Amino acid sequence: MNTKKVVVAGATGKLGNKIVKALIDQGAEVTALVRATSNRTVLEKLGVKNFVIGDLMNRTSLHKALAPAHGFDAIVASAAGYTRHSKGDSAKTDTIGYQNLVDAAKETGIPRFVLISILECDKAKQVPHFYNKYLTEKYLIEKQQPFIALRPGAFFDWDDDSMVKKIKKGIVPVFFHGVDYGTIYTPDLARYTAMAAISLPESELNTTVDVGWSTPVNGTTLASAFGKVLGKPFEAKPVIPSIVIKVIAPIIALFSDFMHDMLEMVKWVNTGVYVSKNTERQLKLFGDLPTIEEAVNRYVKDQNLI
């Protein structure tokens, strides 16, 4: 069996950790692309033995990290500068940095680029960190770098510690209340990513794929699912109070690009457009789509809530 060699950019993040685990579980040889100062402890515990040093804002470092001598079969890009996960991250990481990464992958001959994009990002020009993913998709096409872009909705398990505390109290915390939106459980996204990197045929490349649950969710459907799974009543409550969204956040957004981005995201999602328009591709490539109740059931088991 030919073991696939996959390099992961963004491996130190929460999603990156899960992608690395999924790749290893599916038999890939994983190399993590990290900064010289990155903490490797979690990745080493997951079984990562190979590391290359690079920074998305340093083109020279990327060409060295992705050099043909490594023999990489695919690169997975899950880095997200807007989250400020690491020192030095910024919106430029999601624009210039990703262009640098695409250029390096193309010029070093990596045959497959798996991009973690965002659901309906091509429609979200007013939301910088959404639309930047679409610009990267366009850049991959322009550079003729073979790719597959996975477009997940909102991460269901956005903050396990905070969510677990709320759920134990009968509360389902939601960012978008009163509107349907696409969502995904990140272990599923990690599994799809690993499949896209090592097992999908070349004929399925150069496309985008919406990934998520079988139907959009909202606070009511999530509360109902938790109630059925855990056998007690649940109430959905917004993570951010409406007064903050309507009054405080707009003032902060005048002085903060990050807050402006987040506020525009909330406004855009609340228009009801953040839902998958095509679930058939996910079904074809990755199998049955999780239902709301099935995904919630797995989540509560993974968090030892049942």
Q: Could you explain the architecture of this structure?
A:
It is a single chain. The chain is α/β, with parallel strands linked by helices. The protein has a domain at 5-154 and 184-212 and 275-286: NAD(P)-binding Rossmann-like Domain (Rossmann fold, 3-Layer(aba) Sandwich). The chain contains twelve helices and eleven strands. Helix 4 packs parallel to helix 5 (128-142) and helix 9 (242-253) packs across helix 10 (257-269). The radius of gyration is 19 Å and the shape is globular. The protein starts with a strand and ends with a helix.
Brief summary of the model shown:
This protein is 44% helix and 15% strand. With 306 residues, the chain is of the alpha/beta class.
Would you identify the CATH architecture of one domain? 3-Layer(aba) Sandwich
Average pLDDT reading: 92
The name CATH uses for the topology of one domain is Rossmann fold
The CATH superfamily title of one domain: NAD(P)-binding Rossmann-like Domain
Radius of gyration, whole Å = 19 Å
Structural class: alpha/beta
How far apart the termini lie comes to 39 Å
Largest sheet, spatial ordering of strands: 3-2-1-4-5-6-10
CATH class identity of one domain: Alpha Beta
Number of strands: 11
